[in-house]
Amino acid sequence: MTAVTLSKITKQFGDVTAVKELDITIKEGEFFTFLGPSGCGKTTTLRMIAGFYYPSAGKVKFNDRDMTTVSPEKRNTGMVFQNYALFPHMTVFENVAFGLKVRKVNKAEVKRRVEDVLEKVRLKPFIDRQVSQLSGGQQQRVALARALVIEPDILLLDEPLSNLDARLRDEMRNEILRLQREYGITTIYVTHDQVEALTMSDRIAVFNVGNCQQIGTPTEIYNQPVNDFVAEFIGETNLFKVKKTGEGLFCEALNLRVHTSRENSMKNESIKMSVRPEAITLSKTKLEGVNVLVGKVDLVQFTGESVHSFIKVNEGHTTLKVTDLNRGPSTYLQEGSDIYVQLPPDQVRIVPVAKE
Asked: pLDDT tens digits, residue range 155-164?
């Protein structure tokens, strides 16, 4: 298996710096995700690992081998593109076999390896079918099979599920993860979809404007965001500016002296508080303790598995979003009703404002 090390990687296109001094080590056999909004540098980084771009500065290493300026065909990486990049005039077999034929593998070995990988992606019955006759999910699995059949050291996937509908995306997430674990291959996955990142990854690197903001496991990224960008981009949160006063932290938007049981040693004056919607307590009767607000139910949204309640607080100047599991119509709040709100101190996280 292969580990990937990016050391002080920078990529410039003219005056634009797409990636800035990136340091990442991806472990052998790890499912590692680059996550971020469009234009944040995640695909550029993937392409530098693949060899399609060379860094303006820094080094790319596979294990201990310097691959910084090695051409793509000599890197033994398998790439799955957003648009699949299949040959529509070829059959499933011909598409999957293409990389092996380029490598001049003998016919018997080509047949064995193609049939084996199509068995693994559950497409062997379609081996002689034109790819243009396949569904989107089947075409995606052909693209995966074509990348895996060459037995790459590293599998690279660039937003491979973005063209599929929601239900098919769920199925393909499980399929990709199953194959990755079965092959034990080091996998680097690019997406802007936080659900994909949280459900599939061993670790995630969160990107914004060419900078890596945080690297961690899905639970670390979600529960311990290092700044306001990560807190807001991963999942949903209620995010408000706070300031330090002689009596502690004060949030003007909530007109609340904020108590938190989390360690807060930041000296940075530009700080915010983050509270996840599912962490907030609501009650029709008066609540005791700290971080208690009185509000009015402004809107209730039913989504199926959960219910979102939007609560106006601070005399209607500020809205809090609160999420709860769907426990039946009798538990839904009534719009316009009064409600007590508590932000549990162990769920209030103080984070710095991200630097550009």
From this structure: 999 998 888 8
Cβ count near 188 (within 10 Å) = 24
What are the contacts of 83-88 at 24+ separation with CB within 8 A?
83/163, 84/139, 84/140, 84/142, 84/143, 84/160, 84/163, 85/143, 86/131, 86/139, 86/142, 86/143, 86/146, 87/131, 88/130, 88/131, 88/132
CA distances from residue 248 to 108, 257, 258, 259 in whole angstroms, order as listed: 73, 7, 7, 8
- What is the separation of C-alpha 39 from the centre of its chain, rounded to a whole number of angstroms? 15
Mean pLDDT of 240-248: 91
Look at residue 159 and give its three-state secondary structure. coil
Residue 221: which residues within 8 A CB-CB, separation 6 or more?
A: 198, 204, 206, 214, 230, 234
Cα angle 278, 284, 285 (rounded to 5 degrees) comes to 115
What is the pLDDT confidence band of residue 261, given thresholds at 50, 70 and 90?
A: confident
Query: What is the C-alpha separation between 11 and 274, in angstroms, rounded?
Result: 33
The percent of residues in the chain predicted with pLDDT above 70, rounded, is 98
Provide the 8-state DSSP code for 148.
Answer: H
Task: Return the CATH architecture of domain 4-223.
Answer: 3-Layer(aba) Sandwich (3.40)
Tokens 């996937």 found at: 157
User: In terms of pTM, does the model score above 0.85?
Assistant: yes
Amino acid at 143: A
- In this structure, which CATH number among 3.40.50.720, 2.60.40.1910, 2.40.50.140, 2.60.40.1120 belongs to the domain 228-352? 2.40.50.140
